[in-house]
Amino acid sequence: MIRRARPDDPVMTVKAGIFTAHAIILKKLYVQIPDNISFGDATAMSTVFSTVAESMFNIAHLEKGQVSKRLTHRFACGRWEVQREAWVSAIQLAKKVRAVMYATVGKGEKAKFLMDRFNIPRNRTYQHHDTMFVEGTTREINGRGVDVALTSLPGELLQATWRCVAEFGIMVEIS
């Protein structure tokens, strides 16, 4: 059951200028911190979400209602728990603006996670252990390339990501 927060309840929000111990904010702009999440983890979650939102909307200019926008993002690279929060945030924000998503994963179980939790079709999910995701992504979108690529892949895989980006598209690297 969700209830209105009371004074001294631990809550978190993502709002400019809110670095304070006390604030009055609209109920829709905060969430209560569950007992099983530490203040440190809650802070990290809101920082990750802010970084992803800044990357997608203020840098890449992914806009609400642009149904034709395509987002390719690299899911679950590096430390799974930390990276997962970033990519889950990216997926949630992209779904909110109805972006068409293409994702790369390290393991089949992570592709299943994307299909089960976010309804990202299997034909839009690729392995990122090699550069074959370039061929798969460009084939799926008829060679056009993606408008926005959000990535944390290193080296050759980072370079390969560029080959997925459409002319005048944007790639944001968030390692």
Model description:
With about 180 residues, the chain is of the alpha/beta class. It is elongated and about 55 Å long. The strands form two sheets. Strands 5-4-3-6-7 form a five-stranded parallel β-sheet, with helices on both faces. About 40% of the residues lie in helices and about 20% in strands. It has a domain at about 60-175: NAD(P)-binding Rossmann-like Domain (Rossmann fold). The protein has helices at about 40-60, 80-95, 110-120, 130-140, 155-160; strands at about 10-15, 30, 70-75, 100-105, 125, 145-150, 165-175. Residues about 75-80 have low confidence and may be disordered. Helix 1 packs across helix 2. Strand 4 (about 100-105), helix 3 and strand 5 (about 125) form a beta-alpha-beta unit.
Observed structural traits:
five-stranded parallel sheet; NAD(P)-bd_dom_sf; 175 residues; transferase activity; alpha/beta; transferase; ER; Rossmann fold; Enoyl reductase (ER) domain-containing protein
Order of helices and strands: EEHEHEHEHEHE
The CATH class assignment of the domain at 61-173 is Alpha Beta
Average pLDDT rating? 78
**Strand portion, in percent?**
15-25%
Question: Which parts are unreliable, with pLDDT below 50 for 5 consecutive residues or more?
Answer: 75-80
C-alpha geometry: elongated
What gap, in angstroms, lies between the N and C termini?
Answer: 37 Å
The percent of residues in helical segments reads 25-40%
The CATH superfamily label of the domain at 61-173 reads NAD(P)-binding Rossmann-like Domain
How many alpha or pi helices? 5
The total count of strands amounts to 7
CATH architecture of the domain at 61-173: 3-Layer(aba) Sandwich
Largest sheet: 5 strands, parallel
Strands ordered across the widest β-sheet: 5-4-3-6-7
Q: Based on helices, strands and strand pairing, what is the structural class?
A: alpha/beta
GO molecular function: oxidoreductase activity; transferase activity
Keywords: Transferase
Protein name: Enoyl reductase (ER) domain-containing protein
Domain Enoyl reductase (ER): 2-175
